[in-house]
Structures are given as structure tokens and as C-alpha cells.
Amino acid sequence: MRVGVLTGGGDCPGLNAVIRGIVRKGVQEYGYDFTGFRDGWRGPLEGDTVRLDIPTVRGILPRGGTILGSSRTNPLKIEGGVRRVQENLAAEGVDALIAIGGEDTLGVAAALHREHGVKVVGVPKTIDNDLSATDYTFGFDTAVNIATEAIDRLHTTAESHMRVLVVEVMGRHAGWIALHSGLAGGANVILIPEQRFDLDQVCAWVESRFKIRYAPIVVVAEGAMPRDGDMVLKDGTLDSFGHVRLSGIGEWLANQIEKRTGKEARTTVLGHVQRGGTPSAFDRWLATRFGLHAVEAVRDGDFGKMVALRSTEIVRVPIGDATARIKTVDPSLYAEAGVFFG
Ligand code: F6P
Fold first, then answer.
1. Ligand 1 center to residue 252 CA distance, Å?
2. What is the model's pTM?
3. Same domain, 213 and 311
4. Is residue 342 part of a domain?
């Protein structure tokens, strides 16, 4: 049995841990051979492969990024793309494929399985934690830890200068990183894409914080929007998915707060720092278990499935369950955090 492995979409701490788990179990317990495909779906599309065996996965557990490389190539959007993928899988003698990725990568996997019978198992990945059908995705915990540490540091500099510190974190469609890091870091305002915010209310929270002689920390997800969101949307450009990418909500918000409250405000945009570097212990644990269970699904011939975390169990769900809709922050969870605002 030869199993192909690929990692697609934005990289995420823990990808290497998954690859290691797959290869170690596959080789040691089942005697499988592996073929790594470079750069997500570009690998099978172009027949670009890389060696994958026990020596190549040695020492990669704590390393961020992915030894296989990643891209957002989508063979479904390329003329003849599916045929080329099928031909290259056959040419490499690949009997089954494990696709590690987010909404888009897994969307391709689901379609290839459903419509073309490709034997594929999915592993969910995103720092945003917005994939349905799994309690958590690996990479999220690391991103939250990085953002929390940043918030802790920003508290002390904000206090020293009695300034507003706006921290922009990742999350275009879901506010999980903002909510978790904001709560963990003791933010005074948390703004998420799921709920449009009222600028007057944000300014009121900021001012109330100053009244008790503390400097406010505002955590804003990159996809958060004010109620009269057109102001920001005008500056939006389309990203590679055709989504409107809001340019600099953090910067915009700090300017507005400064203008309206007369308090000095600064912005920190955490950006790709949240995605880089070594995975947390939780993410290594989750990613490793996903890898082990993905190769078990291959052994069982349980294709078209994705491994997922339910409580502490790893289960298998149809890949389509994860990609049908994104998992957003529940309004009650967000409301719960409101006691700390202001
Ligand atoms: O989906 C993961 C993610 O990190 C988002 O939070 C972020 O908006 C996006 O990827 C950034 O993508 P890119 O690295 O292509 O700019």
C-alpha cells in the first residue's frame, strides 16, 4: 500500500506533527510506503513529490510550518485539473491519499472522493478553529497562546503611557482567536466578525477604563466590522478567495478611538506571527493523534472521511460535514465575555 500525503492552505503549527504521526504508524504498524506531495494540491496536479519515510520525519515534531510545503492551488478550478491529479496519483502508484487542510483543501478532497472516487482521508487544520464537525483544530491553541502573550506585554506598555492599545488578531470570518486570547489576556474590549460593533459603545468602554485609572486593551479580529461597515469596506480589496479583505481594521479603530475620545491610541497587528514557530503541547498532542487516526482510517478503507476531535475522542465524520459551513462563535459565548468589557 502506498499512501500520498499533502498539506494545503495557510500553514499552521502542528502540520509536521501530523505528518510524523502518519508516517510513524503507517510504516511501523502497517508496513505502508509513503509519497509526499509538495505544496498542497499543486503536488498531485504537477506530479511534484518528495520522499517521506521514517528518517525524513525525524526531529520535525516541534517544528512549525510543513516539510511538504503548502499552497492554495485548487485543481477543481483548473481546466483538466482533476484528470491530471488522477493520472499523477496513478503514475506514483498511490493507493490512498491523506489531505491535511482547511475549508478549501478539504473541499477539494470531498469533491474528488464524491465525484471521482479518489480514496482520500481528511485531516482538519486551521489556526482559526472555524471548521465544523471538530471541537478544535490544531494550530488554534498555539495562535491563542501567542496572542495572549502579546496582550500581556501590551498591558504593561499601555499602562505606562496611559494609552489605548488595539491588538488585531487573525480571523476573517470567525472570532475564536480574538475571543479566547482576549479572555485569557484580560482584554477590556473584544470585537469579532460575527457581531458588528458599535463604535460609540467601544469608545464608552475605553473611557470607562480610563476613569478607573487603567489603560484599555482592545482585541479586534481582522474580520470585525463596525455597524456602519461601509467605511471600512471601501478600503477592502479582494483576497485570493475573492473574499473582501478588510484593510487594517486595527489601525482604523485606533484612529477612530483617538479622534473620538482624545486618548492616545496605538495598534499592534500580530499577523503571521500567530501562524509561525513551534506548536504548543496541546497542538502537538492533537496533531499527532489526528495523524495516527488518519492512517487508521486508510487501513480501514474508510474513505471520504475526516478525523475530528469530539471531547477527548478522535472520531471520523464525512469530510463534507466540516466544509459545508464554517463554525462561528456562538452569541452566548460572546455575551459571556461582556462582563469584562469596559
Ligand atoms: O485561515 C488562516 C489564516 O491565517 C486567516 O486567519 C488569515 O486571514 C489568512 O489565513 C491569511 O492568509 P494568507 O497567509 O494567505 O495571507
1. 20
2. 0.94
3. no
4. no
